[in-house]
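Annotators were shown the component list below and the corresponding predicted structure, then asked to write short factual statements about the assembly.
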Amino acid sequence: MAEKATINDIARLTGLSKGTVDRVLHNRGEVSKKSYDKVMDVIRELGYEPNLYASLLARGEQRTIVLLFPAHEKGSYWELASAGEVKAQSALKPLSIVTRQINYNQYSADSFREACSIVLEMHPDGVVIAPMFQYETQVFAKELTSRSIPYALVDTKLDMPGYLAFYGIPAYKSGYLCAYMLSEGESLKEALIVRIMRDKDRQSDPTVMRRAGFMDYMLEHNPGCTIRSLFIDPSDPAATDDALDAFFQEFPHVRHIVMFNSRIHLIVPYLERHPRVRRVVGFDNLSANLAALRRGTVSALIAQHPEEQVFQAIQTLADKIVFQRQPDLTDNYMHMDVLLRYNTEDY
Amino acid sequence: MAEKATINDIARLTGLSKGTVDRVLHNRGEVSKKSYDKVMDVIRELGYEPNLYASLLARGEQRTIVLLFPAHEKGSYWELASAGEVKAQSALKPLSIVTRQINYNQYSADSFREACSIVLEMHPDGVVIAPMFQYETQVFAKELTSRSIPYALVDTKLDMPGYLAFYGIPAYKSGYLCAYMLSEGESLKEALIVRIMRDKDRQSDPTVMRRAGFMDYMLEHNPGCTIRSLFIDPSDPAATDDALDAFFQEFPHVRHIVMFNSRIHLIVPYLERHPRVRRVVGFDNLSANLAALRRGTVSALIAQHPEEQVFQAIQTLADKIVFQRQPDLTDNYMHMDVLLRYNTEDY
DNA sequence: AACGCCTCCGTGCCCGGGCACGAAAAATTT
DNA sequence: AAATTTTTCGTGCCCGGGCACGGAGGCGTT
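Structure shown to annotators:
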């Protein structure tokens, strides 16, 4: 009973033909206002939903969603994120949707611009952007909008009107939480923030917001704490070691370290050779980070499930592309997980 | 290019008609051996795969997945789990799959058996079981298998051959983690486990495994710690208060409390009236638990995302039912999240 | 009045496969 | 050899929607 309504039912009930109903359904124009309204009324009344199979069968073509990500090596944050693409691929195969990834150099706006034009040439049906450059991304987004290609943002939410959805964690709060984990149960006198040299150049960076959240927590709960910074070069382990050595020579009493990017693992070798700190808190479940967590060198990690973010973003786009479904929320702040020594294994 | 072969291509190449090809494809008989072989040869040669959309469209029926869950009230653990059903429902609507939930009394094997027969009468295409009774579930599972109805398990993994997939967290490890969070950074002399009276009767219970993991951690890291138990009645808040009162009269130095079920919130009112403990650790993100966490009464919660478990289980079944797709993994241990005061908001 | 041009709409075929029905071919029976 | 049964097969319509094409009707122009 209660058979699902079809396009023919609507045609019959409105006294129009299915061609017209179809035009209404796809906003393809060439329909008078009167007919349009009549069709819409009946659609609402019947709660009509198109039959996915019939639709897919009739259309038959393949849709493409392109991911615009920073280039990444093995074991990096963006590789984690790419796991979400794989997961989405298998879920979307039955919908004849394929995904492709285009990469850019996260330290070069030029390379980003170049990647953007490659994406456009592919005539994608949807784009997932992990943005790094505010201005360039805005330009690109405008271009996508003008071609009415929907796009979603992951990781960093730039000021950008017109995106279909954003998936990421609340950066400020994650910094706040980070400070709580670093200091909970003790009263800190000193703490160290380790930063990546090149990151200073970037125009946009969630680590900035994290730092702000961190600072605010400390101000509220450990106002007497002195917070120092140290810059390291990710491509030069020896120099990193030296820098840390020099730092601890000067400030031997520091026992608490944080990093707001995903690369806490860079300082792990040093810490394991010179065990002196009490708590080390970092971000993201890179395998190198997890290993350090299991060994106890790192006390806690805040994980943001990049693969989930990407998966969801792709799903949302697919929903939009295939079913013209608008997502309920545009800004989806996902949960931050706290990883401790004994809950890392199932990652 | 490399268009996918259709049933018509095969018909053409074999010189037979698509009716015959169809009979071969479905082993529906009424085909001579010669024709059968010819068709099979061409199928293999072309690597023919039927178009699922066309097939589903032509067949057109609705599939049903039934969830067999304990009955639950507002704000309970199984209500959280049911959120996964809602999520799955909207995702599966386009695949013409509906879900229905059948509930049983989690303290009565009889009611479980009854619920099982109701499920069977519904002629489901797949079943998700949240099992409580080892033996009865095995009987039911055997029945499902004999009718070749696939089923998935969530929450508790019983010893049960033939299930399509299991989704849950590793219970033993979660207890281990729980102990770590309760004691990390201090050396405990005493701790209290609060338990639910009726739970003693149940034949199977992840809380048993959790307790084991907890005990082992304590044995390894706090061997001198005395661990006491207290049973409370969930339906009688006044008695709970009294029990706690009596307990602390007798053991005034206990400062650490755990509960291995989802109902840590039951002791929160008492704790807030008599603030005396240092750390309180519980399970699951029930809203009452989260509220207590935010107020600081509860120190940490281990959350297992029941809604995700259920969602995934349903998805896996749907994949099997619609696309005959076998899942990669049968045992899916999901991540346990640690919830602290400052990462609860996005739940 | 004849013509052209829009706007709006209906018709009909297609997508790939499922399946009922009936006909042709082969095998048996008389 | 004719009649009957059984086996094997082809035809044609259906599922629900997408979409190209062309036609009807309204409007304005010459």
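Statements collected:
1. The first helix of chain A runs from residue 7 to 14.
2. The CA atoms of residues 47 and 165 of chain A lie 26 Å apart.
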